[in-house]
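Table 4 source record.
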Amino acid sequence: MINDSTALFICPDFFDYKKYITQELSSKYKKVISLSDRPACSSIAKALIKYNAPVYSSAIAAKYSQHIINLIENELPNISDVIIIKGTCITPSFIEQLRSKKNDINIVCYSWDSISNIKTFISLAEKADKSFTFDLKDSVDYKLNYLPLFYVDHAVCVDISDASDSTITNNIFDYTFIGSYHGDRIRVLSKFLSKKPNSKSFIKIYFQSYLQYLFYLATDSSLRSCSKEWITFKPLSRVELEAKVECSEAIIDIHHSGQTGLTMRTWETLHAGHRLITTNPVVLLHTTTKLATVIDRDSGTEWESDQCEKYRYELLKLVPHSVSYESLPLSDWIMALLMKS
């Protein structure tokens, strides 16, 4: 049944996930207003916002938050729910203004990044009706609700026969990795794959710009030594990505070293029934070593089963609340976000 009201959805433009969340919300609300959590700007401005440059980032956030208030002024009487994901350039005063204009509005905040990377999230969470994080450690440290990320059912959104590359469904890969460049991803990939000399792999590491590539080329020896075929400046389409996954034995996921949250790639891999190779041992709370292999970030070697069991046992002792052990389809994830306590 469609809610006879409007939802305001504020979210980063992160690959095609925002599009799928917006589509799902549109099946639940009469109208969805979908906006980015930051203004359109240059690469330099994005970097200043990302690294929370003093004065600049706060000024941009205040200006952008007021822009949204002005933009939705006429729609506000019909807005029942506000969903803010990450909220990079959203200020606490934005939430205060919404409440002053409509005191019964329901505001939910969700972070799919670690708090260390988006320190302003906590100030938003304190103003919201409910706040969630995908990061288990952050949920404990900051007393936020723990809600793992979701999977997008590729059977619904992708027809693999539409793949433009005719060879894409014919190749069989032992290992596939598709993701953005960050931190030590290339080093970890190189370490792991060096131990699998006879394997066939498909690796694509995405750079947002050639300028970004040149900067890290000068500072990252692993990038300089890796195969140039690994590098791309064009993100794979959902069709191409899912086609590669379908013809791969195992999917590699290398999480950000400062996070414990499980990525969408993790949930999509487990849901699709492929073997997961991951640097994030938190996955052991949600699946077994039959479906997931944990690798050491420094050496690239696979964890032994007793090491996995010990980690899982110790982690369970630190978690003071129940966790969801099942992978959530996008529709259920949204229902969990919007559920009133």
